[in-house]
Amino acid sequence: MRVTPPARPRKLAKVPFVELADGRLQGVVSSGSDIGRVYVSSVAAGTYEFACSTNNNRPCGGARGTFCNHIRALVGEAVLQYGAGRVARYLKAETAAEEPDAQALTDAMTAARPPQGDTTAAAPVFSRFLRHLAYLELAPTTAPLPEMQWFPPTGSAAGGPQDGSGPDTGERADALTGTVDGLDEVLAAVDAFDQVLVAGLLRPRPAQAAGLSGLARAVAGSPLADRVAEAAEKAAAGSAAEDHFVALAAARTALLGSVHDALAARAEEVTGRSGGGATAPGPDGPDGTGASKDDLDGAGGSVEAGGTGGSGESGSTGGPDESGSTGGSVEAGGTGGSDEADEQRAANLLAAARSWLSDLARRGWQGLDHDVVAGSAQVVSAMLPVPGLRRLAVLLDGFAAELAASCPGAALERIPVRRWADLWARATLLTLPGAAHAPATGTATGRLLPLGVDVQEHATAVQAQVHAVFEPADGAAPRLVRASVSAPKPDTVVGAGLWQLLRPHMSLLAAAGEGRAMELTGMPVTAEGDLLWSDVHARPGEPADPFATARVALPAAADAVAAPLDRHPARLAVPVFLEGYAVRQDDDALTFTVAGHPLAVDTGRVPAAGPLTPGAVARSGACIGLLRWDAGTFGVQPLAVETTVRKKAVAVHAGAWAGGTTDKAGVRAEKAATDAVKVLRERAGKLLRT
């Protein structure tokens, strides 16, 4: 699910940065006469108190008693980026119009005769703008970011292969709707613990103690038992230290790992393929969480320079006060110096991240405020340039953005309880040294046949993941693999514009867009089936129709195995091919009926960065997709469909624009994104180097 709506594309020349944060609409507005001078403008929610000054804190001459032109421009661009309704709700501005526009919002706020505030917010807002620009300075990576699966993009019988050589998926579709033994009990224990995080653990109540003890009972027969029992007892007493939070996160992860394994076994029944339920070799850890006993023992130890300090019985994290705020600090910047110094710096950053996550657990989702959430910013900025910390940094950045958009927590009408607990638990375990490491365990030489492209994104990161069948040159059995490329990004780069950030760094995207195979020679690959892509090890091959691959090669391919930490229901993404289904549409819900059994279609994960649309899916007769499990049921995410357009059968792919396009809509979207990136790079070139 997506907690915060994505930003909308807009021109950035006048207002390069706008955000709804810290209880204000705030941003940076160009002066119009000097690229090196910008104005920091803001309007407070509720009171509409306004401020405007240059980036070096000189007051704006136009902001005297009323909104200046910079503030009016800021409101207009905020409406373009977020929509008038969202801006009005955030600022608590009421207008007479049912569908307000920027002018109506401005009129409503100025009619209240708002006071003029001081410019104390200018420095932190301008600092955030510089951080926003710095995303364009960070290098993309082809190492997989599994946690991006939590961030979807901003957008009759199923027959087997036509030649009859493969299995009939439809005959086994009933396996997707059958009861999984023990599933409800495990999820009940997880849900009870997740409710503990809603109110937080500063002053636990009896209901929270029950949720903690239930989690401990659920893992009583595992190697985690003693550690989790101790952690539950300390947390119920309000004295949990960081190592106790790590143990609780490991227990929750282990339980959901067992759910993953049971669901993966069901998916194997449906596809007739093997391998998806297996676990790849990884760090030794109790119940396959990837967290070893030594890791759990050392999680709360003393770390200098922005670390956690001694944890002790009180659960102190570098000196939090009673409200749970942390006193640790971390300097931003890249790594430098010796390997030993780099390792120490990485350890300090991991400890600082763990400290922040522990503060979140103490405060709870209802205790969120902007000061608590802002505690992650320095840590994330320091982590992002470090390749070994990129995975955790991207997760924390997306998580913190959701939390910031939801502040204050006490006013939330609906809390995404399981989602935030998922992100918290995964981030907590990734703070353990080595937990995010997924080294190459071999090389791949042979033919790669793309099936489709999955896009994942949050405000400041995007990942494209190509699912493919790999046919080894030595004649070994084919298997399913993935290849990923990701890049940090400003939140205003969305839609088809995402491809220009990714395309130069992986030639496979062009091959997938063109329907072409790739010939691999010595491509590094992990035990989980992730190709660590390098164009040095690949060259374009012959044309290869993904639907032919899905009909002929996919049924015989072994599924990828799961890394220990990645055993989670949300990480299930099993390539499947469906055809001959009936389509039913109820309002916005789309369902394929496969062999008499309904299968929900997740069109919400269809990216705006390609020509595939929910309408095309609804008119389709064949589909390449990813079998997923969400909200207690299996569903399919379309990657490509065969449909009819103007009485002509065509294939429509979500990743068709990955390598470039002549499609008019795609060309317009790419041009808009190119202009946006050009403006931001121009600003970055001037402001980040002065």
TrEMBL record:
Region (Disordered): 150-173, 269-342
Biased amino acid composition, Gly residues: 298-318, 325-337
Designated name of the protein: SWIM-type domain-containing protein
